[in-house]
Structure formats: structure tokens, C-alpha cells
Write the C-alpha cells for this entry.
Amino acid sequence: MHSFLSRLNTLFAFTISVLAALTLGVFISTYFEQYHGTVSISANKPIVKHMTDFSANRKKNDLGVLQLDMDMNLNPLFDWNVKQLFLYLTAEYVTPSNSLNQVVLWDKIIQRGENAQLNMRDVATKYYFWDDGDHLRSNNVTLTLAWNIISNAGRLLHVRADGSSSFIFPDEYVTSRGKNSGRE
Amino acid sequence: MHWSRKLINRLLRYAIVVSTLLMLWKSLVLATNCSRPILVVLSSDGYSFYNLGDLFFVTNYPADPIRTGDVVVFRIEGRFIPIVHRVIRVHEREDGYVKFLTKGDGSQVDDRGLYPVGQLWLEREQIVGKVKGYLPYLGLFVILLSNLPLVDRLLSGVLA
């Protein structure tokens, strides 16, 4: 009647049911969580260069170079259904040819248990700020930090942080190789 | 009961199970507007948040625009298995034409090396959908099943 296999089967089915119920509980208990947070961002020494983008179409595009200051404490965002935070800083702006441009300049993965308090000074952007054309000069750019809440099980939420910042690029290109402060 | 009735009875039971599953799947396709509403991770680079056997829930609503930071499923020419990566650049023109650039969270460079030669941007038609939900490990069963011969033919059309 109760063979080894049937016992194993019952045990397995029970384990799966318990895990499923617990997972559902974890999902429901964090469903109404908002995961809001405030950050302070500022951009330093923005300059524009006009260069060939060898990673793309080999045409000359505008390249923005700037340094970032960011302060945030995201430790409160971690609850029991947050496995990882994916932070990303988006530069958003409008050009005559495009009604929306979004370029990610910096991102960071914060695992559960890692320190989620960041105080950064004069950090170079992690990715190149290439424009889709040549419209960065005198353009107003808004920097917004957002995070993607990666849960253990459940939704993949995207939340924009409170506290975005805007700056305006200078109206002239930086040409000389010596004095620019970009990373090259 | 006559043996042929028994056989027909059994066949009908199987048919009901299969058609119920198919209807569930097709309803999900309709509800999410996505041709692949549930995806199983078949390989992972080890740096991303997902692992082998995790399940993704994907939607593809036209009213829900794709922006930087979104995790999208896209398909490129010559590759059967779709790729799940994050959008890092969006350029949208007045007339509604949008182009995207993607990158894996764990990789150092963007996906231009993955796109077909000469293609610099993803377009909306190549994007299967946007990942909205996540369930770990459950897809391992599917992967185990699909390693059995024959079952793999039956499943791959729907899930891979």
C-alpha cells in the first residue's frame, strides 16, 4: 500500500504545495508596497564634444561629458520580497528631430545585504552620452534616477525616484584635446 | 463496455486536457497581447538577476510605451530563441518612430554585437514584449521535460 515511491511522491507534492503557498504569501504581502525614495543628483562640468561614434554609424555625433554627484539611502527599500535593486540614471531631453530621447548614463546593481547608501562625488558617467545626431549644445537635460525592484517572486516594478535635476549644456563644442575633462 | 467505446472515451479525455491547456495559453496570448506571454530562461550569463529555469511574464500593450530601464524580450533575425535584456537608450521621433538600444545587466557593452551586422538599433516590431513579472525555478520542470526526446518537439513550439 504505502510503497517507498508513493511516500516520496506525497512528500514531494506536499513540499511543492507549501512552497507555492509561501511564495504566494510573499507576493501578496508586498503587493501594495510603493518603494518610493528620494535622491539628490547634480551634474558637474557638462561639456559637449563633436566626435565620431565608432560603435555606431561612424558619423559625427554630439557627445556629452559630465560628472555626477549623487546621494541616496535606499536601505529602506529592501523588504523580504526584494532580491536586488537595479538603479539607473536616465538623461532625458528633447531635440528638433526627436520628441523624446532617453540615454542611460549610469547604473548599479545592489544585492540584498549590500550597502544601499551611496554618496558619490564627481563620478564619471558609466556609459557614453551620445546624442542621436548633433543637438546637445545649449540643450536642457533632465537627470532622473529610477530603480527596478527585482523581487524574489512577483512583479518587476519600476519606480522613479523623487528629486530629479536639470542642467544645460554649454553652447559651444570643446575642441582642444588638452583642456577637456572628459574620460578618454 | 465495448473495447472501442473505452478507447474513444480515453482519447476524448486526452483531447479535453490538451485543448484546455491550448485554450488557456491562447487566452493568455489575447490578454497580454503578446505572442509569448510566459517564457522560460534557457540560459543565463550569471550576472543578471535571472537564472536557468526562471519564468517571465510578458505583456505587449501598445499603450504601454517602452522606456529606459524596462526589461524587454526581443527577437533578432537568425536566432530562434528570443533574448531578454534591458533598454538603455530610447530615441522617439515626432511621427512615432522609435528606436531602442539594449544591454545585458551583466555585460560591459551594449547589444550591437548581437544584432545582425549593420543593425544599430532595435525597432518596435522586433520587441516581443516587456517583462512584468518573475517567478523563480518553476521552469526547471519544463527544461527537464524538454530534455526528454519527443517532448522537446511538443514543447518548443509553445514555450521556447
In short: The first helix of chain B runs from residue 3 to 32.
